[in-house]
Amino acid sequence: MSKLSPDLKSDLRRMERRSRSLSTALKAFTADKRIFIIELLAERDRSVTELCDATGVSQPNVSQQLAVLKKQGLVKARREGRTIRYRLNRPKLQDLYAQIGQSFGVLAPALRPAAPASPALAAAPVAADVQPGALAG
Length: 137
Hints:
Number of domains: 1
Order of helices and strands: HHEHHEEHH
CATH class: Mainly Alpha
Oligomer: single chain
CATH architecture: Orthogonal Bundle
Strand content: 5-15%
CATH superfamily: Winged helix-like DNA-binding domain superfamily/Winged helix DNA-binding domain
Low-confidence stretches: 110-137
Radius of gyration: 19 Å
Number of helices: 6
Mean pLDDT: 76
Shape: elongated
Strand order of the largest sheet: 1-3-2
CATH topology: Arc Repressor Mutant, subunit A
Number of strands: 3
């Protein structure tokens, strides 16, 4: 290993920790049913029964997907009598979902944001702006 300054080593360790954290968080987006649930919750709060009906997935499977999303802090639950309703936890999650979907051209036009969430996002390159192999090391 080359000789690195202590400051650079510290920065690299910090970047590696952030990368691991981000990788763990993004795993919540690796199952199509979880993404479908996120899309449904982006529209409005829903109960497990409503999510089962909309997705065609069994209650145990929907509950398992919600548990993953909840563990990552992406959804919150609240009780209404005997019903538990789920909603997206993070205000910017809907914007992030819309940006990702728009970047890959897979988000329905009705769900596309009218304007970027922030000026920084407007200036940030999207997947279509990155040339194949540009990120290869």
